[in-house]
Every structure is written in structure tokens, then in C-alpha cells.
């Protein structure tokens, strides 16, 4: 499948959708034309199958030496588990913070030092949470080969963080492909295409909707 075909899947189930005339408000206060909830792919079997087969292909193509998959908590856990099953390999996940009871684990699943790991993420925006996972795995002795994800906004901050962490990300789809499909499928008017891309490139600009 192509990036545009994955984008069409995500749009069709409302996992990613665009509302430029009534923008969403992010926790940071930024007004955004896009909302993303890739957890919805789990309850749409046909789309879910496309996603898991696609992630499996990304791992196989780009990280042939991988020994274990690690999901991000919580959205990446199910995808990591399914892809690990398809690849017949171990998986685990990284908590957003260590447990406050028991063994106070942050990393769940048996991972030996030196294990070659690929991180499975659902969405990459500014890259902060994903890089925290990479850092936690490296601190535990993992050899993190890179990241695979369902969707990326392609924001400069996210791209810079991934580069600074000396890692790479491969996504099934992205904002550029999504807006192309959104115009073709009449989800949004053509006039919004370049303005949404401009928002991605400068999300702090409050004038994009005017």
C-alpha cells in the first residue's frame, strides 16, 4: 500500500480527520486543523490488518536485524504485540513512568542488554514521548535500531528531536499524503490544503485560519 492509501484508511474510520474551519485546541493551546486517534484502527479489522501488515513490512525492510519490538505506552502496545506475533519475535513495552509498586518497572518484558530493538509508535508529532522511550531503552542497555509508526505530522520539532537522538523513524503515512487524499475525497475544500501544510510548518501561528 502507498502513503495515500493508508491515509484514506485512516480518514475513512475517523482515526485522523481534518476540521480546518473549526480547529481543535491542543493541550498547549495551539489551534489545530487536525485530530488524530489511531487507537480507532484497533476496532476496524480491515484497516487494522492493513496497518499491522504495513508495520511488519517496515520493520522487515528497514531493520532486518531486529530481535525485539517495544511498544510505546499506551497506544503503541497493541500494534507492537500484533506485529511481533506476525514476525514471531519477543515484544514488550515502555511505561510513561516507572510503577510505584512491585518491582517498579518502567520497561515491561524481558530484554537483555545489547538486544536490538525497534520501537513501535502510533503517532509522531513533536517526538517528545517517543524519544523518551528510546532514551529509557538505551539506558537499560538496548541497541535501539529505530522507530516505526502509523502516522507522522512531519513537524520540524519532531524531525529535529529524532535526528538529535541519533535514530530514524519510518511511518506508513503522513500529513502531506493525508491532505492530498482529503482534497481528492472531498473531506476538505482545496483552499485548505496549503494552509494546513503551513500550519504543520508553523503550528504556533494563530493567523493560519484567518
Can you put this structure into words, describing what you see?
The protein is of the alpha/beta class and 210 residues long. The protein contains 7 helices and 10 strands. It has helices spanning 3-12, 45-62, 77-87, 128-139, 156-164, 175-184, 193-201, and strands at residues 16-18, 24-25, 31-32, 34-36, 68-72, 91-94, 107-108, 116-124, 143-152, 169-174. The strands form 3 sheets. Strands 7-6-5-8-9-10 form a 6-stranded mixed sheet, with helices on both faces. Strands 1-4 form a two-stranded antiparallel ribbon. Strands 2-3 form a two-stranded antiparallel sheet. Strand 5, helix 3 and strand 6 form a beta-alpha-beta unit. Helix 2 (45-62) crosses helix 3 (77-87) and helix 6 packs antiparallel against helix 7. The longest helix has 18 residues, at 45-62. The relative contact order is 0.17. The model is unreliable at 98-104 (pLDDT under 50).
Low-confidence stretches: 98-104
Which structural class fits the helix and strand makeup? alpha/beta
What is the overall number of helices? 7
How do the strands line up in the largest sheet?
Answer: 7-6-5-8-9-10
Q: SSE string, helix = H, strand = E?
A: HEEEEHEHEEEHEHEHH
* Inertia-based shape: globular
- Could you tell me the mean pLDDT? 90
**Radius of gyration from CA coordinates:** 17 Å
Amino acid at each position: 500500500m502507498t502513503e495515500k492509501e493508508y491515509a484514506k484508511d485512516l480518514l475513512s474510520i475517523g482515526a485522523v480527520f481534518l476540521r480546518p474551519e473549526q480547529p481543535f485546541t491542543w493541550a498547549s493551546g495551539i489551534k489545530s486543523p487536525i485530530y488524530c486517534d489511531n487507537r480507532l484502527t484497533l476496532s476496524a479489522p480491515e484497516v487494522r490488518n492493513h496497518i499491522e501488515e504495513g508495520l511488519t513490512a517496515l520493520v522487515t525492510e528497514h531493520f532486518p536485524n531486529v530481535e525485539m519490538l517495544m511498544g510505546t505506552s499506551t497506544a503503541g502496545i497493541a500494534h507492537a504485540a500484533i506485529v511481533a506475533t506476525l514476525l514471531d519475535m519477543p515484544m514488550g513495552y515502555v511505561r510513561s513512568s516507572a510503577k510505584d509498586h512491585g518491582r517498579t518497572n518502567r520497561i515491561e518484558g524481558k530484554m537483555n542488554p545489547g538486544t536490538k530493538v525497534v520501537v513501535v509508535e502510533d503517532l509522531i508529532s513533536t517526538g517528545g514521548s517517543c524519544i523518551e522511550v528510546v532514551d529509557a531503552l538505551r539506558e537499560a542497555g538496548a541497541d535501539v535500531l529505530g522507530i516505526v509508526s502509523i502516522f507522522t505530522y512531519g513537524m520540524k520539532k519532531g524531525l529535529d528531536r529524532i535526528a538529535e537522538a541519533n535514530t530514524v523513524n519510518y511511518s506508513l503515512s503522513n500529513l502531506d499524503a493525508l491532505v492530498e487524499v482529503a482534497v481528492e475525497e472531498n473531506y476538505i475544500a482545496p483552499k485548505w490544503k496549503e494552509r494546513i501544510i503551513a500550519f504543520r510548518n508553523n503550528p504556533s501561528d494563530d493567523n493560519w485560519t484567518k
